[in-house]
Design brief:
about 0% strand; 4 helices; about 55% helix
């Protein structure tokens, strides 16, 4: 395989990534404006329709939120690690 095939393949991959990112950017646009002039992406509209924003969650415990931030999304791994206790047999 010569270098021109490798170059064309890289250009095709970069083009495919750019094409696939366009709908993602359109869907995930944040809500802007107020009232009837509000423009929003599809995900932001669904968040508002089903009341899923963080402001509507109620009282949030700062300790648990900081722990989530410190674990970098590895909550499941930490729970498995802490939950592994040796099984002892009773006599």
């Amino acid at each position: 395989m010569n270098t021109s095939h490798s170059f064309y393949r890289k250009v095709a991959y970069i083009t495919a990534v750019a094409v696939l990112l366009m709908p993602l950017a359109w869907l995930s646009q944040p809500a802007t404006g107020k009232g009837a002039t509000q423009q929003t992406g599809k995900l932001a509209a669904l968040r508002q329709e089903y009341h899923l924003s963080q402001a509507e969650l109620g009282e949030v415990d700062p300790g648990s939120e900081s722990m989530k931030l410190a674990l970098f999304g590895l909550h499941g791994v930490a729970a498995n690690f802490l939950g592994n206790e040796p099984i002892t047999t009773r006599k």
